[in-house]
Predict the 3D structure of the following.
Amino acid sequence: MPHENNRGYSFLHAVALPSPQGQRLNGWGWGWGWAGFSAFLDMLEIQVDRGDGKCFVFLTYDTTPDYTDTYPHPAVPTKWKYRAIYRVGDAQVGVWSNTVEITVGG
């Protein structure tokens, strides 16, 4: 549910990018930051679509920029998609990030 004051945050667009390191030791990494608004934001909500027919589902609330997904990789190459939105308290603020797609497994 959007924050009651979401109009004030409507310009905020979470940005999620594949990490320059890509594959990390225990998972796949991708970066994000506060876009200069860390004083006003509490966390980032991250959702994932693992190509299993469930579409986007909750992955985590992250409070530290950059994230490593340690979910086990499938046996065959599969496209995973991620998106994120900032949060203030219990409310989503701003708009969803662009979708980040990676191929894992195999």
User: Anything to note?
Assistant: The chain is about 0% helix and 45% strand. The mean pLDDT is 79.
